[in-house]
Protein: Electron transfer flavoprotein beta subunit
Organism: Halalkaliarchaeum desulfuricum
Amino acid sequence: MTLSIAVAVKVVPKPEEVTLDEETMTIDREDADSQLDPAAKNAVELALQLKDAAAEAGEDAEVIAVSMGPPFFEEHLQDVVAMGADDAILLSDRAFAGADTYPTSRVLAAGVRKLGDVDLVLCGEESSDSSTGQVPPGIAEWLDAAQVMAVSEAEIEDGSLHAVRTKAGGEETVRVPLPAVASVEYGVNDPRFPDFKRKRWAENEWELTVYDAGDLDLPESELGLDGSYTEVADLEAIEGPDRLGEWVEGDPETQADEIASVIAQEL
């Protein structure tokens, strides 16, 4: 029996290029370069580690990435395939635009269902562009699956997920039955680089499967901005304080005395 792992992968705008659409109060992605969300890459790496562990035990496993977004996300899914994922699907429809975490988790869960019997769904703990952490438990609810959040380590044993969560002052080890959904803590591993030959194959031969709202049998009126329960009411730019700089010259002893004097005046 093949262990089937799905990874929910988010593509986010680079932080330094983020702009907001003041009319819709949503992120404007059109003019920003995009990248795989860092926490999502950690989730991909953990999925591949579980696949490698299964292979070492003489068992079959597959990793399939699932992402929701516009067509240009394909290039980023090619990177995930080049890292070692067996396949990827893209959930793309104008009806998905502007979604908050509620319809987003619903669409991703529907995408996972299209894959058939999935044992484990991995997600990044939270994305760098919204940082809500609400989508992973939302997917679990839609799939009626067990859930473990903020996982730092994991292994599959006897039909269960054994996961380690980092807690203040220590670690917590939990076990939940499969199928399950787990979010992966940001920075807990070093995502592998895409394989060059596999990258070429992904770009030239691999074909991405794309599903729209109709394919997922989801009503458009309950998706995207229209199906969202939260909205941004206002945007306000926050000006940071002026930073006052001053050169301190002289030999090291003179500089140290001057710096100590300035600090003493501020205390």
The CA atoms of residues 1 and 244 lie 65 Å apart.
